[in-house]
Amino acid sequence: MAKTLAVLGTMSSVGKSLLTALLAHHFAKQGLKVFPFKAQNMSLNAFATEEGEMAHAQVFQAWAAGRKPTVRMNPLLLKPMGNLSSEIIFLGKSEGILPSAEFRRFKAYYKEKVFEIFEEISAQNDLVIIEGAGSLAELNLLQDDFVNYEIIKRYGIPFLLVGDIDRGGIFAQIWGTYELVPELKEYSCGFVINKFRGAEELFKEGKKILEKKTRKPCLGLLPYLPESIFEEDSASLGLPRGTFSSQGLKIAVVYYPHLSNYLDFDPFKAEKDVEIILTDNPCALYQAHIIFLPGSKNTLFSLAYLKKRGLFEVICKLAKEKIIFGLCGGFQLLGKSIRDEGIENQGQEKALGLLPHETIFYSQKIATSREAVFDFPFFKGKIKGFEIRYGRSFWKGKEVTSFAEGNVFGTYLHGIFYNDDFRNQFLNYARKYFNFPPRHKVSFRSYLQKKLESFSKIAAFKNFYLQVEKALEGSP
Fold this sequence. Notes:
It is a single chain. The chain is of the alpha/beta class. A hairpin with a 2-residue loop joins β22 and β23. The strands form 6 sheets. A 6-stranded parallel β-sheet has the order 2-9-1-10-11-12, sandwiched between helices. Strands 15-13-16-18-25-24 form a 6-stranded mixed β-sheet. A 5-stranded mixed β-sheet has the order 20-19-21-22-23. The protein contains 13 helices and 25 strands. It starts with a strand and ends with a helix.
């Protein structure tokens, strides 16, 4: 049986996903067969493998561990639809849409199925690293909570409790969480204070107070990382917001409600001359060279937001002078019209009309990895990615999955910018158009590996890894 370690949090967005990835990378380098696992994730950042959909966080963690992503790393995925409902994805396949209040009735059913999967993977690996969800101490949700509480209690799994000092209230976060679930305290091997700014000496007394109050060791005082390589939680959205600050190639990813798969744009972080921001400010679109319309879990609602914010008119106005690219829901928004008879929303609306296709939503979902042939001015040939959609688009009676007209591009294929050749050719096309010098291809995987390795050189992380190793040595 595998050793198991859980990374749990005092609240959402404390850095659980990244710390899980870093630990997976660290122990995989030691030759262990590491399996990242999150029983249930609520996210619109999905990835489709040959098996079906899973959360992108566990895909990233799989890459960090040197493993091929599998839906067993995230057996249950909830995708918020708006209107207090979510789509349920179990082992990669959609099991329908449920009102959020109704899901509690199904938790016991899914709990046992998820635990069966957990027991199977425990027998097949050296180390399973579990990522928790939200806060460990959501008292109103503890019944049948198999993501944090029940899995720890049933299997006696040692866990790290992670708090975010940058958001304040670290004493209430750490000490308060332990006090609210005292029955789990015996399983904790210590706590981690994440996103600390300044010299460690400044919090020396604070660590002593927390260790005395909790009677648990501080396993790490980890620094705030101004340039994170990965952010999973929707509270952070993974991209900087605000205005542009550099003189390089500027990319604006348009924000709208139900925005999904924003990690499509993570590979641009590897490009030194590219600045990318997430924005719903029309002024930022005027400053950008490239405008991206990302995926959406509720395309008609997102379309209404574009019109409400004045973004609709600005995007149409800028179409002849900027490069505009839509992905999945963004591709639908670029067409002439969208008709949805109750899959994500209801109604028919005029879309941006920058591309000639029309979109209709069907009840049968498409969620799979796929290879497509592109005929874009900067790239002609096959490219691999994945699709997650209900909508299907048509032009002149034929179904289309990508389209290009002038400097407006669209496709249903996610993940294409992880292809280094495609990303480089697209960027060099934009560089030439806006009078920037071309640049050589950058490997995103190499960029990630270098970033992951860079943490091992930071003293605080070195000590953290050491403390976790000692904790695991003493675990069953």
